[in-house]
Amino acid sequence: MKPLAQLRKYSAELVDLHHALALMQWDQEVRMPRLAGEDRASQFATLSALVHRREVAPELGGLLAEVEAQKGNLSVEECALLRVMRRSYEQNTRLPEEFVAEFSRLTSQAQMRWLEAREQSDFTIFQPLLERLVALSRQQAEYLGYAVHPYDALLDLYEEGLTTAQVTRMFGELQAPLVAMVKKFAGRLTPLSFNEPFSLAGQEQFAEHLLVAMGFDFSRGCLARSAHPFTTTLGHHDRRITNRYAPESLDFIFGALHEGGHALYEQGIDERLAHTHLDDGVSLGIHESQSRFWENVVGRGNPFWQRFFPELQQAFPAQFSLLGLTEFVRGINAVTPGLIRVDADEVTYNLHVLIRFEIEKGLIEGSVQVADLPGIWREKYRDYLGVEVPSDAEGVLQDIHWSHGSFGYFPTYTIGNLAAAQIWEAYKQYDPGFQQTLADGNLSKVREWLVREIHGHGSVYLPEALLVRVTGAPLSAQPFLAYLEEKFSTLIG
C-alpha cells in the first residue's frame, strides 16, 4: 500500500476512535444516569490513553515523513490532510499519555460536579475540581509550548495561530464602540415577556420545524435535550444537536437556530472528505460564525420572521396571537445588559466574552485564583455591564466550558460574530434580493451558498484563507460594528 493510502487509512481509524469518545460524551450529557459518573470517568481515561498511543505512534510519524517527501505530487486536499495530521501529531507527541488520561478523567468528573454545583448554585462544590483543571491546563500549556504567554498555547488548540496579544487587540477595537452602543441602544426596545408558559412538546416541535426549514437532515442527525446546548459529530452521517427548554423563554428558538448552524456546517462537508481529519469545521471561530449567522443575522431579522412568525402565532396562540410582527422583532432584539451570556443581545454579547477572556488569561498566568472567581465575576459584571450577580448559578457557574477543560475556547465566540458579519456582506452581494429570499422562507438558497463557499471544504483551507476566499478580506471588527449600528438604528427608528 502506498504511503498516502496508508495515511488515509490511519486517519480513518483515528477519526473512528474520536467519534467513539464523542458518543460517550454525548451520552454523558444527554442520557447517562447521574451515579454512573465515576464509571464514565474511568472509561474516558482508559479510551483516551489508548487513542493517544495511536496518535503518537512512531508508525504515524514515519508515514507523515514519507508522504511529506512526496508533497510536490499531492493535490490541495491531500496537502491539507497532511497539514492537519502533522499539526495533530506534533501537539499530541508533546503530551504524556498519563497527562492525557488524567485530563480526560478529571473533565468527566468535573462535568457532573459542575452540574450539581449549578443546580445548587454553590461554587464551592465545583471549586476543588476547577482548581485541578486550571493546574492541568497550565501544565498543558507548558507541554505544548508558547513563545510569549502560556494562554497562547491554549488559544491555538481552538483557533490555529491565535495569540493572547491578538485577542487583546481584537477586544481593544470592540470594547469602546460596544460600550457606546450599549448606552445608545439599551432600553430603546422593549424585551418580550410571557405570562403563559410554552409547552415542552410545543417548543420541541417548533424547534424541529425550524431545523427542517434550515435544511438540517434528520436522517443524518437528531435533536435531544441537555443542560447546555451543543452539537457533536459521531460520524459523517451522524451530526447531533441538543437544545434546552424553559417555560417562559425563547431559548427553544434561538438555541435551535444556533446549534442548527453548527450542524449544517458539519452536514455540508463534502462526502469525499468523510472518514478523514478534513471531515470537520476548520476552526471554532469559523464554526461559530455559522451558528451566529443563523441565530442572529438571519434569525433575528424581520425578513426571516415575515415567513415564520405566522407559524409561531399558530403554534403558541396564547403568547403571540395579540402580538404584531414589528413588536416581536423589536422585542427579540432588545438591548438589555444582563447576566447570562447565551441570552445576551448582539450588542452586549461580546462584553460577556471579554469578561471570560480576562478571567481565563488571569487563571492561566496565575494572577487570578479559582477561589476568588465568584467575587471577580460579580465585580466585572458590575463594571462592564452594570448588572448585579445574585447567585453563582447566574454567575460563575452558568457555562459548562471550564468543566470540559476548554480554556482558550471563549474568544472564538467573538471571532465567530465578526466573521458572521463579513460572511453576511458577501452573501448580500451574491443575492441582492436577500430580503425577499428570507421573507419567502427560501432558506435552501442561503444554505446552498454556504455549502458551496464554506461548508463543503471542511478543514481544507486555513481559517483566514477561507475567510478571504469568501469575503475578500481577513477578519476585521469594522463590518461587525457597522452591521450593529445599521441594524439597531433601523430598529429603534
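Above is the first protein from milestone M3; the second protein from the same milestone is given next.
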Amino acid sequence: MNNIENNELLIGDLRKNLLKVSIPTMLGFALQAVYDMVDMIWIGRISASAVAGVTIFSTVFWLVTVLNEIIGASSISLITQSYGKGDIQRTRKVVEQTLTFKALVAIISAIIISIILKPLLSFFSTDQIVLKAALDYGYIRMFFLPIMFSSYSVNTALRCLGDAKTPMKIMIVSSIANIILDPVFMFDKIPGTNIPGFNMGVFGAALATVISTVIAFSMGFYILLKGNEKLKITFKGLFQLDWEIDKKLLTIGLPTGIEVLMRNLSSIATLKFVSIYGTDTVAAMGIGSRLFSFAFMPIMGIVMGASTIVGQALGAEDVDKARDTAKFAALTNIVMMGFLSIVSILIPDKIMGIFIKDFEVINVGIPMIRILIPALILAGWSMGLGSVFTGSGHNIPYLLSSIISRWGIQVPMLFITTKIFNLPVIYVWLSFVAAEIGEIVIILIHYKKGKWKTKRV
C-alpha cells in the first residue's frame, strides 16, 4: 500500500507544508532554549564561578548525547521512510524499539559517566568553587538521563508522523514548569518577592530541569500509548528487542553520532583553550553557548521539519520534492539567521547584560556575540541542505564536514593563536567562523554529488 494519498505533507504546496511542520517545532525548541537561558540568568545571580561550573559540566554532558544522536538520527530515517511507504506496522515497531533501546543505552551511559564525572571535570578547572557548582548541577542530570533521552524519542516520533503541534505543546508545558521552578528551588526567597524558596543554588536549577523533563516524557509517552489515527504503541512492543531494527538504529545514525562526538570533543578542546583566559572568559563562553543554542533553535525547527518531509518523500520515491524541500529550508534558515545577526551586532552589550552584571564578563562577551551569532548564517545554510542526508539516511557527509571543519580547521587555529602566538581571545571566536566556512564547503560538495537521492533504509 502506498501512503501518499493519506500523507498530507506530500500533497499541496511544499513551502506551506514545510512551515506547517517546522513552525511548531521552532516554537517548541525556542521555548526550551528560553528556559536554558533563564537557567543561566538565575545562575548568573549566584556568581561567575557558578556560571563557569555549569558551563564546564554542560560541555562534558553533551558528549553523552552522542548516543542519543546516533539512535535519534537513525529513527528519523526509519520512521519517515516506513510511514512514507505506508507500512504502519513497521513504523510502530521502529517507534517502540527507539524508546526501549535508547532508554537502555542511557542507563548504561549514566552509570559510567557518573563514576568518572569528578576527574573529568577536574581536567578543566582546579577551582574548588567552580568544581562544586559543576558537580552539584551534574550528578542529578546524569541520574535522569534515561528520561531525557526518552522524552526526545516521543517528540521525534510524533514529528516524523507529521504531528509537530503536539511536541510543541509538550515542550511549552515543560518549559513553563522549568521557568517557574527555577527561582523556587534556587533561592531562599524568590527574587522580587517575599515568597520563601528552597535555597538549593545550582542544584535547584538542575532539579527544576529534570522535573520539567519528567513532565515532558510523561505527556508524550501517554499520547503514544493512547494512540491516534496514525499510530498506537503497545506495552508488549516496548519489552521486546528486535535486533534487525536495533542494529539499524545503531548503524544508520552512526556517522551522525561520530559527527556529534567530534563536534563535542572540539567544544571540550575549545573550552580548554578558553580556560587559558580565566574564569570570566569561561563564564562569557557559557552565556554565549546558551545564546548560540537559542539562536540555533529556528534552524533546528526548519531542519527537523525538512528531514521529515524529505524522508517521507524519498519513501514515496519523490526525489524532486525532497530536493526542493531542502533548498527552501536552507533559504529560510539564511533569512532568519540574517535577521538575528543584525540584532546581535547592534546591541551585544544589552544582550550580555540580561545574563550577568559583571563588567569584565560583559566586556569579553560583546565581540563574542558579534562574531558567533552571524556565523549561524553559514550553519543554517549547511544544515538546511543537509536535511537530505538525515531524511535519506546518508549521514557520511555530516561526519566528514565535522571532522574537517572542527579538527582540520578550528582546533589547529586555536592551538596556533593561543599557544604559539598568545593572541587575544577574539581569535577563539573567529575560529568558529572558520569552522563554519569549512563545513558549508563539504556539505555543498556532497549535496551536489547526489548519493542521497538513491539511499534508502
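Note on the second protein: Residues 13-453 form one domain.
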